[in-house]
Amino acid sequence: MNLYAYTLPLATPLRFAGHTLNERRGILIKLEQGEHVGWGDCAPLPGFSHDSFEQCRDALHALARGETHPDTLPPAARFALDCARWQLNRESRLSLPPAIPLLVGTPEQQLAQFDALETPPGEVKLKLARDTVENEIALVYALLARQPKLRLRIDANRGWDWESASHFAASIPLDSVRYVEEPCADLNDSLRLYAQHRLPLALDESTQVPGFQYESLPGVRALVLKPTLIGSLERLQQLIDQATMDGVEVVLSSAFESNIGLTHLAHLANALTPASVPGLDTLSALGADLIAPNPWGQNKPLITESELTTL
Ligand SMILES: [Mg+2]
Question: How many Å lie between the centroid of ligand 1 and the Cα of residue 292?
Answer without folding.
Answer: 29
